[in-house]
Amino acid sequence: MSAAPSKPTVTEREARQVAEAAREQSWRKPSFAKELFLGRFRLDLIHPHPLPADQDAQRGEEFLAKLRDFCETKIDSARIERDARIPDEVINGLKELGALGMKIDTGYGGLGLTQVYYNKALALVGSTNPAVGALLSAHQSIGVPQPLKLFGTQEQKDTFLPRCARTDISAFLLTEPDVGSDPARLATTAVPEGDEYVLDGVKLWTTNGVVADLLVVMARVPKSEGHRGGITAFVVEAASEGVTVENRNAFMGLRGIENGVTRFHQVRVPAANRIGEEGQGLKIALTTLNTGRLSLPAMCVGAGKWCLKIAREWSGVRVQWGKPVALHEAVGSKIAFIAATTFALEAVLDLSSQMADEDRNDIRLEAALAKLYGSEMAWLMADELVQIRGGRGFETAESLRERGERAVPAEQVLRDLRINRIFEGSTEIMHLLIAREAVDAHLSVAGDLIDPGKSLPDKARAGANAGVFYARWLPKLVAGPGQLPGSYGDFKHGIDLSPHLRYVERSARKLARSTFYAMSRWQGRMEGKQGFLGRIVDIGAELYAMSAACVRAELLRSRGENGREAYQLADAFCRQARIRVEELFARLWTNTDDLDRKVVKGVLAGRYEWLEDGIVDPSGEGPWIADATTGPARRENVHRPIR
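Given the sequence above, the corresponding structure tokens read:
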């Protein structure tokens, strides 16, 4: 019998150590975003804009044509919203189309699409119905195919990838009822017994878990003789004895998503199904997400394009005070924001995706920035669309249809997009993750100086190394091409984008100086300055988006594809972004962070409970966090494999 798992008790420092150990420690390839945070604007890493090979583009376009026809004729988004379920025939149709294997190599029965065309496909499907996009994304971006592609043995690839390419849906199971972004608390265990592991635990929010055939499960292996232990990844057959889907969860958006609670009780998993080595689970998860995160901004781009289409069509026919509402500045500014931001998001997505395909650059920061920026900006665009539509934006599509108007699901898109600020790393966690990578160079040379666990000799060595690094680095932050009027002149064609690139170069140096000053000022307390770090990351995201927008505009101009219009959109976006950047820079040092901390302590201490008088709380009874004690299943198995 395997031992019953106990809930790990960890300190803040121990939790940070677990997360730090899962990071990829080195930078073996260049990174545009990493250089940006260090104050170095390496335009040569992204310009000229990389492009897919002709054969990859042809294969991708052929599939997109088939997928578009399927989306237009076979997917009834209103039905999915009404029934809160994707019809089996839709999922089976996607299987026949090969959509389950878009990212799987042709040798295993997949389509072998590039990251660029995989993301274009997700944008297309997601615009039709985001729940369908989520199913395909969870299956391929974080489910079985991607970790096996990166870390699986040849035997595992031969066994599982052909199934994933055509017939079997996969899911990724990490989160638990008491474990969100802090994996050090992971309670699910996998106890070695001979050539098997015995799995016990409960997993929450298992996207695709209700219908999945194969699961990637993260579990803690106890350390024992012959076993290094640690959080480890396994491929688990969903039909295995002891696997029970205890609940299909329902959400404010993505009503068709098959997301549930899965219990494992004495589930026997062959050791051959372990992905990588024991203790490598979190590293596998994070590495998988380096490109897997790009699926979310892909669907955000699709949403932005749809918001622009509806805003254009509606605001041109809706007349108030004698002219279309689009010509009223209060509405027109919202349309301009949607148009410019959609252009920039697509630029960020395509650039990041193409860099992922080429594999010349380390894109962990670029992908994370794309996810962060895409999810935040798409939400804002959808919110502006609802405002442009007025009362019709708040009214459901079904209600609009019933009273004879076009059934525009604006409120649904707003609800569907909301989860993207939480999925695959919340905005707050993404800020911390990106900030950690952004200051990696500083911690590499000076980290021991602020580490209370280091000895005096270690600190002395770190001080010497830091002195050498900063003596070379700091002088380079004083001046650069951004101060020369003629710099980046090849971005001037009627409309001049070169001032925006000069602004990015100057701002990158200012960003690096601000980071250095903050580290000097707060030292070991820096990790607690999450408000400051979040603003640093948001500035970097805006600068990356500005760079991508300009590079994309020049690409389109050089190819004769709406070049003037692209330049205009890039110019508008950069001018909007510069205003946001200046505000963020000002808020680095002028903010209410310290006061906010005092208020929070007061709230937790109950000093403001009087402020809650005069309401009735409609919440139901029950614990804040469900009991996840291991043991036999307590509910009927609602697992629903689709055949």
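The chain has a mean pLDDT of 92. Try to locate this feature in the token string yourself.
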